[in-house]
Design a protein that fits this description.
alpha+beta, two-stranded antiparallel ribbon, 18% strand, efflux transmembrane transporter activity
Length: 480
């Protein structure tokens, strides 16, 4: 009984610990990279590229094909062994092995292998970009939850102050020092703050659900994050010149590498299309054999009368007969040779070379070459556009990060001044030198300043990390 109770307590403790687990940003990012559907699809693209490469390698290996067949014929049929027409019923079988090898095909096989390598590299870059995008999505969702939690804490802490003020005001009203209208004003402020707290709690829950959905976690009720220890960590990227960040982005970002690989793929497709204009030389080797179970007839010598004499002609002029002696034979039916013996007796080998020279195929080859040229030009334009887009995006991220820093610094100054104003208003209210409405307005401005400071802080953190990502820092190595 005691053992059962201990086991139940241990299990309950483990379950409670699992339910109270708080996810860190690093854990969320890692979990998303391992379970996100888009990432898995990009990983499948790499597997398809590996299959494409395997197929391209197989073009350099001889093709080997074997075949065979068994049939039964009744009536007048051609014996596959003797090639004679026979009216009978017989079973026949045949088998063959053919080997083919392409000696030269305009280097198309070689180009296909090169294209498969480029295609796999392009798939890897697409996977890297997908992981960067997912990491940013997770980081943004994570910081949104932290921001909402921080705002909730601001509202709760300030509401505690409001409740203290209600008690203080109640005492002053009862003592006749303050009018009852001040108490009603403070209570109205408390009611408004309670409503804001409820909205803030909803925002926290909604942002947690959105993050859980992004991570494909279905246990929304028990999902929570670690909301402490996330501060502004600047590795010096924000202080670099924007041209340096743009140059690093063009060198390291997957968007440019993907566009570059698309240009190489288009160039390889053009070479493959041109290869169709060149002759194709291939070698072949074939082996075949056959079997039939039909009996055959052989001439056997008559032992009693081994020879016969027959006239074979007449001497011209004299009319004298010409006599010849021949073996005296008669036909005898014999059974078919054994299966294995016939395979050796009836086999044959064929080998040789085959040359195919393209002369005219309805402009198909020419059309393919022209389409490949157009695709190449389009991919070059896309690379140029990708560079322009990246430059514009990085510059915008740089401006956003600088603006977010200024907004954060301004929010810090604002919170200092609003705190001083709030403390001053509180002191005046406590001694009855100001009314409840003016005090609540000062407190409201102080609360909004705190919320704005939180917003500016996490907005700057996110935009700073976006800038670091463009600079070439891997998403898994971003510091918060």
């Amino acid at each position: 009984m005691k053992k059962s109770i201990i086991i139940v307590l241990i299990f309950t403790g483990i379950l409670s610990q699992a339910q109270n687990k708080k996810w860190t940003l690093k854990e969320c990012v890692q979990y998303a990279l391992e379970n996100n559907i888009s990432v898995k699809q990009s990983e499948l693209d790499i597997e398809l590229a590996d299959i494409e490469k395997l197929t391209a390698k197989g073009n350099f290996i001889p093709s080997i094909n074997a075949g065979g067949g068994v049939s039964e014929n009744t009536g007048l049929s051609f014996n596959p062994v003797t090639n004679n027409a026979q009216t009978t019923t017989f079973l026949s079988a045949s088998g063959n092995i053919n080997i083919g090898y392409t000696l030269f095909d305009g280097l198309r096989n070689f180009r296909q292998l090169q294209r498969a390598d480029i295609s796999r590299l392009s798939s890897q870059y697409r996977l890297a970009k997908m992981k960067d995008d997912i990491s940013l999505f997770v980081a943004n969702g994570y910081l949104t939850v932290i921001l909402n939690k921080a705002n909730l804490e601001v509202l709760k802490s300030q509401n505690l102050v409001t409740k203290e003020q209600i008690e203080r005001t109640q005492e002053l009203v009862d003592a006749g020092s303050l009018p009852r209208g001040d108490l009603l004003e403070i209570k109205a402020t408390d009611a408004s703050e309670q409503q804001q707290i409820i909205n803030a709690e909803n925002n926290v829950q909604i942002s947690l659900i959105s993050l859980a959905q992004l991570l494909l976690i279905k246990d929304y009720e028990n999902f929570d994050i670690e909301d402490e220890g996330y501060n502004i960590v600047d590795d010096g990227v924000a202080s670099r010149d924007v041209s340096e960040i743009i140059a690093s982005a063009k060198e390291n970002r997957s968007e440019i590498k993907i566009a570059e690989q698309n240009v190489e793929l288009a160039e390889m497709d053009l070479k493959i299309a041109k290869g169709a204009n060149l002759p194709t030389l291939s070698a072949f080797f074939g082996y075949n054999t056959r079997f039939a179970n039909t009996p055959s007839f052989v001439n056997q010598l008559d032992p009693d009368n081994p020879t016969i004499t027959q006239q074979i002609g007449v001497v011209e002029g004299t009319g004298q007969s010409v006599i010849g002696t021949f073996p005296n034979t008669f036909p005898v039916e014999v059974a078919a040779d054994p299966f294995i013996d016939q395979l050796y007796q009836n086999d044959g080998i064929g080998y040789g070379l085959q040359l195919n020279i393209p002369i005219f195929n309805g402009f198909n080859t020419k059309g393919n070459i022209q389409r490949s040229r157009v695709s190449l030009e389009r991919s070059k334009f896309q690379l140029e556009q990708a560079e322009l887009d990246l430059e514009s995006t990085v510059y915008q991220a740089y401006v956003d990060a600088k603006g977010a820093l200024k907004s954060y610094e301004a929010a810090q100054l604002a919170i200092e001044s609003q705190e001083l104003a709030y403390n001053y208003a509180k002191e005046r209210y406590d001694v009855g030198l100001t009314n409840a409405f003016d005090f609540s307005q000062s407190k409201l401005r102080f609360d909004n300043a705190k919320i704005e400071l939180n917003r500016a802080k996490y907005d700057y953190i996110f935009k700073l990390k976006v800038l670091e990502l463009f600079f070439g820092i891997p998403a898994t190595e971003l510091k918060f």
